[in-house]
């Protein structure tokens, strides 16, 4: 059994503050990075652990999907979430093949990357 549950629609059980699927993620400079595709909830506690985002992609080419630890994100106004990282640092984050069911290695790499990545100044 997976340790995460992927959800792609905002649900009342998330609580208003965590209903960010479909919101736009903004970097530390206030630039839009992308649209939040889904949340990965802890299978036992049902609390958000990661959000998934697709970066890049142009004219039918797929970009890469990344996992961002939920605690790094600050939901603000309706439809807006901010992360204190630069767009460039997010672009350098490790990709995940299947954002709905990431492997243990992909989760570990994402956690290591964001612990190591310094906040944008």
TrEMBL record:
Matches recorded under InterPro entries: PRC-brl_dom, PRC_barrel-like_sf
Top-rank taxon, per record: Bacteria
A Pfam family of this chain: PRC
Domain PRC-barrel: residue ranges: 18-80
SUPFAM superfamilies per UniProt: PRC-barrel domain (SSF50346)
Protein name in UniProt: PRC-barrel domain containing protein
